[in-house]
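TL;DR need structure tokens for one chain.
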Amino acid sequence: MPPRPTRKVLLRGARLVDPASGRDGTTDVLVADGQVAALGRDASSSGASVLDCSGLVVAPGLVDLHTHLREPGREDKETVETGCRAAAVGGFTAVAAMANTDPVADNAAVIQEVLALADKAGLCEVFPVGAITRGLEGESLSDIGEMATAGVRMFSDDGKCVQRARVLRMALEYANAFDVVVAEHCEEESLAEGSQMHEGYYSSVLGLAGQPREAEEAIVARDLQLARLTRGRLHLCHLSAGGSVELVRRAKADGLRVTAEVTPHHLALTDEDLTGYDTNRKVNPPIRSEEDREALRAGIADRTIDAIATDHAPHAVEDKEQEFDHAPPGTIGLETALAVALTELVHTGLAPLQQVLAAMSTSPARILRASGQGGPIEPGSDANLVAFAPESTWVVDAPFASKSRNCAFLGRTLRGRVVHTIFRGDLVVGDGEAAR
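>> reply
TL;DR here they are.
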């Protein structure tokens, strides 16, 4: 990277909440030359730009384990630059970019292209995810070793599930050899085929083909058995079903090397929210029942689920403005994730602020092994920070920093909003607006 100019920023009077150190208290934070230079009384304002952060929470920059940046191949939906800008506006300083691009990120050349585009944007750190199988076809393994050497820490065919158990077993064994993690989209193909939403009362009322929660739970059970067999590092993407949470809870009690994530929209919405046929709420896995949502929330509360990840999935307007059964699944989520988590978990008393921030920063950084991300916030640490107003209310509406606008929370009032984002010492978002 080219050298950056000397710069100093003082965050004055913030409530510092740092899950990595357990710290929670009012202090000043001085940033200089890309690092946290001082805290508290040692944080001098001499030569620094001063940001009044009274009433704001300062925390480690958020880390998203599950982002679709679409580039290369679908730049009409999103680019690395616009996706990184949306991430920064949402308080993220790092994202894991999924492999289902065109061409697929199943080789080091595509990985290097994404890294170069992220470096040029300079808005947040991007960790490209490598495909488990060539072309996401589920048959033969991609060159995991080559991509691991290029810096890939996570492998996933997300958007598709690896249907053949033998292939996933080999992937987990290779992952052991290179100390990387395999992230699975859990969906039994024959049970999910043709589905438009969760199978239940509302799918019957709406006349839409339903997907039973067992489509996910069957694969979760299988994959956990494979993780037990191989001792590989398994990460379960976007859990949606209550039975999946219980399976993970038991697996962790047995000592398996498993982690799991849930999306904000699965924590906030239920299948009843699809009664208006809003295609922005058509996602995969589908939004499920109230019972499933409560199980997911309980999984966050007792730390069975490690991370809150956006599954940011931008689509062009014309793709979503179709009849429900023809529209592709997916919602954008980078710019609303923190506010949804605060609204649904913290402000309802379901989980304390520090725990929610850990699920959005410290834990995903640990899973990715992303040094410099997720805290702790202390002198000498990399200055990747977010400052947000926890009580600020706002109504979700376009335009977005993302190139797309297919947001499941359009028109909703949320409580909590990002004010500043600092990435590698640079103020990339100030007063809620991207600096570039």
